[in-house]
Amino acid sequence: MWNERYSTEEYVYGTTPNEFLNDVSHRITGNKVLCLAEGEGRNAVYLAREGYDVMAVDASAVGLEKAEILADESYVNINTQVADLAEYEIEPESWDGIVSIFCHVPSDIRKALHQKVVTGLRPGGVFILEAYRPEQLAFKTGGPPVADLMMSLDDLKQELAGLEFVHAKALEREIKEGSLHTGMGAVVQIVAIKPGGEVI
Fold it and tell me: I need a surface site. Which of 33, 51, 187, 195 has the fewest CB within 10 A?
């Protein structure tokens, strides 16, 4: 599905970073950042331009090929890895930041993945997430077709137990990110920090 979706010259989610990530990425004070379900690379390339050492992970080789092209055109380097997030292992305490922007997987996979996120952050490491809530089904402006692939604030607070939340909101906002995410959206946003490091 994703290889087919990305098999076009168009960057279907655009080439500019997610607005929320753009606003909060400065909270990542270390250098190593992992981007989950990174697709065509817009967020990874943005972070690389900001000076971070970025690993972009996605199930689509086609998407990551486009990510590498975008990085080349932006005169930055990113690392890419094709992987199924159901099986992807995150080494404990190895990342200063982990980014999850519209990373929609089945709830059982997501719960296990978020446990890996908590252990994978270094002390002081930052997790940044924006995703659609089930209420998004009424807007029909992008996102998965079923509620199980979406997230609620309450679920995320349970799944990310062990992190300290500095921003946790469910809201509606106008989204303009390529042709597939355009219009009013029902989203949840998280910025959470692993205790033990310096917080700014």
Answer: 51
